[in-house]
Amino acid sequence: MSNMQNLYLLVPLAPLLGAILAGLLGHVLGRAWTHRITIFMVFVSFVASVLIFQDVMAGNTFNGTVYTWLTTTDARLEVGFMIDRLTVLMMLVVTFVSLMVHIFTIGYMKDDAGYQRFFSYIALFTFSMLMLVMSNNFLQLFFAWEAVGLVSYLLIGFWYTRPTAIYANLKAFLVNRVGDFGFLLGIGLVFMVFGTLDYQTVFNDAASHAKDMAPIAGVSWNLMSAICILLFIGAMGKSAQFPLHVWLPDSMEGPTPISALIHAATMVTAGIFMVARMSPMFELSETALSFVMVIGAITALFMGFLGIIQTDIKRVIAYSTLSQLGYMTVALGASAYSVAIFHLMTHAFFKALLFLAAGSVIIAMHHVQDIRQMGGLRKYMPITWITFLIGSLALIGTPFLSGFYSKESIIEAVYLSQLPGASFAYFAVVAGVFVTAFYSFRLYFLVFHGAERFGKKHSQHDHHQGLAPGEKPHETSWVVTLPLILLAIPSVGIGALAFDQLLHLGYFGDSIYVAEVHQLQVLAKTLQHEIIEHPMSMALHAFGTLPFWLAVAGVLTAWLFYMKRPDIPEMLKHRFDFLYTVLDNKYYFDRFNDWFFAGGTRGLSSFLWKFGDIKLIDGVMVNGTARLVGAFSGVMRNIQTGYIYHYAFFMIIGVFVLLTIRHWFE
Amino acid sequence: MIFGFSILSVAIWLPILFGGLIMATGGDRNAPLARILALLGAILGFIVTIPLFTGFDKTTSAMQFVEIHDWITRYNIHYHLGVDGISVLFILLNSFFTPLVVIASWKVIEKRVAQYMAAFLIMSGLINGVFASLDAVLFYVFWEAMLIPMFIIIGVWGGANRVYAAVKFFLYTLLGSLLMLIALLYLYNQSGGSFSILDYHKVAIPLTAQILIFIAFFMAFAVKVPMFPVHTWLPDAHVEAPTGGSIILAAIMLKVGAYGFIRFSMPIVPDASRELAGVMIALSLIAVVYIALVALVQTDMKKLVAYSSVSHMGFVTLGLFIFNSYGVEGALLQMISHGFVSGALFLCIGVMYDRMHSRNIADYGGVANKMPVFAAFFVLFAMANVGLPGTSGFVGEFMVIMGAVKVNFWYALLAASTLIFGAAYTLWMVKRVIFGAVTNHHVEQLTDVNGREILVCSILAAAVLGMGLYPLPFSEVMHVSVSDLLVHVARPKL
After folding, report:
1. Which domain holds residue B475?
2. Does residue B482 sit within a domain?
3. Contacts of B413 in chain A (CB under 8 A)
4. Is B5 helix (H, G, I), strand (E, B) or coil?
């Protein structure tokens, strides 16, 4: 095993060791040593990722086995790594954001009794997520896929005494399992068709199966479409795409650091990563791509609307995450995998920044999260204020900031796509720009500008939350603000820096495959459309385009509604009462699911148990048999009188009957 | 060889011998001695089976560690023992669990300690006999004999309704076994006077007779698995059984039914097996889906886990009757894993029951606040029950689903629904029992697991994680035997 291979192993194993130490020996190590060890381990992992990045850029990729998990008569199931340009980019994002979140956690969780447990979980998450992106086969992908789900479950329910938290984590797990149900069946079909779960073999053979048909569930399907759609159902669960998005807003019950790490920057993007990784398969099915694009478009637009009326600081950002995940999914559908990964990366930075800044606000507000009780915080928390503003500007796609390049590229790609549903998707992503700008700056203005609404009264919560009357918030400690600053830097600069590389100079090489008819340049030519390739000119060009002015309009509307004329939103709320109710109920998805799926299943189960098991099987079959035997014996008992003369009588009768029968037969 | 005796004989008779010895300690004043003897016997019983694994030849499907003596020469009955890659794992699993049960019952059982411990050791030996017998009569003797200790365990140390449960358990399983005996007698004649199971694998049998034999075997084995619709004895037996009884019942006893299908039904009557595979698969899928739904609405933790067992065993019978190597190996791995996981869950419920004297989910809530170490174990085992990758529960389910896709997408789809329903019933229970705020003063007074309980839980946790992360050693042993089995099943013998 070469030095590089040892380094590959070090990347996931260092955080795993941290997790084990913190989990098993946390109470011995104490708080300080627990966070020192886990942070050091993640730092090691980050440095190793940087070294591997340099190595990969020098042209050394890797695809090999670590150990054999299981053998069957005709296949080997292995744990192994595939290290290429796509992987290494994800490794950098994951370890960097994770490191920032680890540091931030020192400040955020400093009074929590479960301090060591929390560090153990997030280190375990880092391990799982790294195994996910580094995998070279479907089995390990599923392994890590479920492992990140498990850590997410544990972390959403971290404060396990809160009823809302343990409701949310169960819901998250089950909804994800619905996605995994499709995912596992997709993997099953892959295994059936290709006889292996190894990525490289499957990708090499995929083209030869492009036209295969298979009867599935009574209908003859194009096999590749079936596989891709089933795999994508898994992505819909993990990356919270409509209609499996319902778990993500509730996941905000978890502590804020994990909202940043798991439910914004990394885990929820696993689905996006997965589809990009599977590009050689998705490229073979326009049906699947079209499906992906439409689902993404619905998520991008309709989840954005919900962000508009939320009053919890974290939930606004959560809906924003949903909407941005929709953007990435749309890009995947348009075959712009590199663009999707680009947006994944920029989003990881600015969304982690927004969440951590929100966390900083929550610390300062003594764990009040209602934005109606904030306002004017910019005076008291300058670093949080500026970094939050940077994050918001990046999110809405301000020219020169990172989000601009990735989002603009998505809009461009969708514009060029000619798949069914592309025109709807184009409308959704463009309209989404206005919505994004509006809810982002609504949040920004309500939190950092305007009147100071905190410290007025204690909230009704029982946790003694909130500032005392007259008490002023103040800036959080350096462990909190340092990650904000470090995340703000890539939020500003990474877009322009990576734009050329990622999108046009072929950074991804052969780690992503795009069929020639789907390539943007080719599409652009057929539409006689010019693609701008220089980051500077692209930004300057943007000032004349529709998305830019929509973003400006969104910000201005937010300013008008929430700074200048707060009576307008109130008025609109009453005027469009019906619309408001629908949005407030999140399109009634939760109610429907609770009533139909949860309630329906419980009702059916009760019926099956009480009628099937108790009445039918136990009542009729088992105890019925017993009763039958009992009744029979009851009759027989009457004959067993115990009187000799009764028995003698029966004997004589019997002898006569036998003799008669004998007589007849002769 | 151990002191001149073959390993299999030692694995059977050593625990039984210790059982007799423990019984000889008599009343409860000698309880400490009985406990120590039981632990010693159980640990020795496990140690002697280790050479079965280390000395096992993975390259042959022939029987190994064979031992054959005349027994009843007039009917050509032999004392014939031997293991292949299928049965060896179950002897190990059984011997592995006996010390755990002894430790788990250490302080919990205070009345008739010697008799309780003796029953478990004797049962352990008898179950080893079931898995090692290659003579049909010997098999039948062990098969019936192993019911007696369990009947006593439930009937004497069980809960309030123990007599009903014990009798139900006994009659249910006995009834099926009688039909098996008739089938064995038919085979004795058909084979020209042999009781050797291996001879039966070669005897030609007409299809009608095959189907009748299959049904007779089915009655015996399906009850034990248990398959839908003959499963209703299991929840009752579990609810009334003491913790140790539940552990052995779930972890070991349910496996003999599926083992019967593998050793008898599939190779002896392969044509009938193929004819009736559709019915078997249908019953298995009903077990997976229907029973999972029934598990969802249980209010008693033991009943919930019992139903969950039936649902998981549905995967086993599904895997067996789709007749490919993924299915069969998956079924075997699922059986082993289910042993670890269900055993662990019953142990955990026992730990709570010892403190609260209730199995009702509604009486709990917020246990994690008072028993954090226990909660960690419980969540781990629950996740294994959910089939999370990295735990043993995933391996078998995954293999069976992969095998099912190859046969029919619908099978795989219905089987994979366990991903959702299994998670629903298990984690909903976890939510109501472990998480939340402390609900009442009984929970408030709970104390966390003690050293003895931590020991047993840790051993099982290591087994669950070890098998989940590295199942290769388990599957390697069985490859050749499973291939051989599938050859037998595919070959017509009318």
Report:
1. 276-494
2. yes
3. 185, 217
4. strand
